[in-house]
Amino acid sequence: MSDKIEQKIRRAKKKPGVETVSEAQSLLDREEAGGRRLRKQVLQEFCFQEIRCWAHTNNQLGQSRGEASTGTEGIKASD
């Protein structure tokens, strides 16, 4: 194992309820999965904010030119 992984396992083994290497690895895996979910959530929120900001700016530019967006452009009604 690499030194970095061994250090993480040693730190995880110091936590309450962790006695074996496999328990430490399991804990690290759960923490890493939680971190990925959190990063994904933050990224999604950031992207959503960016899109909202872009749409607002785009709409403001359209309003100044008299072309306000309704959000339905390009959508065709089906019969």
From TrEMBL:
Residues 59-72 have a biased composition (Polar residues). Residues 1-21, 59-79 are annotated as: Disordered. This is Uncharacterized protein. It comes from Ditylenchus dipsaci.
